[in-house]
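Hello, quick one for you while I still have it in my head. A protein chain has come my way and I'm curious about its shape. Can you walk me through what the tokens say about the fold? No rush at all, and the record is pasted right below.
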Amino acid sequence: MIVVLFGPPGSGKGTQAAGVAAHLGVPHIATGDMLRAEVERGSALGREAAPIMEAGQLISDDLIIRVMGSRLAEPDAAAGALLDGFPRTVAQAEALDALLRSRGRAVDEVFLLQVPDDVLLERVLKRAAEEGRADDTAATFGRRLAAYRDETEPVLGHYRRERVPVVTVDGVGTVEGVAERIHAALPRPHQLGQAS
């Protein structure tokens, strides 16, 4: 089963992902972690990605898809995966669909963590204060949220058109409370493909 965890910056994807993956019994695949692992391994893909990442540039869709293809071919992903932070654009979603289709697979479900913008900003600024992350400023968050709305949110429309169930989960509350709501909404393996 391939599940996509979706939501705007500050919605709690990273916080919730490990628990969701454990609940489903699949690996948690975050694109940033995956790229860093390829670089550390010194793989051909890693050697291609390293100079782009060091320059602070965005990785091309083609390279991201090849890295994702390599990761999904690993034995621990045979039963599926939880994708976190990917796909970020409709083009990436279409490329992922084609990759999965070539292997007789598909995205089974999308989970959207829904959080109001004011709560997102509050969380990001709190994280900046606690973790000292210089990139977590109100201005940076505004740009990241605008990019999410323009480039990433349309991915939800893509999956709805493809008849992939998109489950909206209230992402406001304690970490434990949100986790309980996600787990209550998660499919059991025999239920996948039956949702409308």
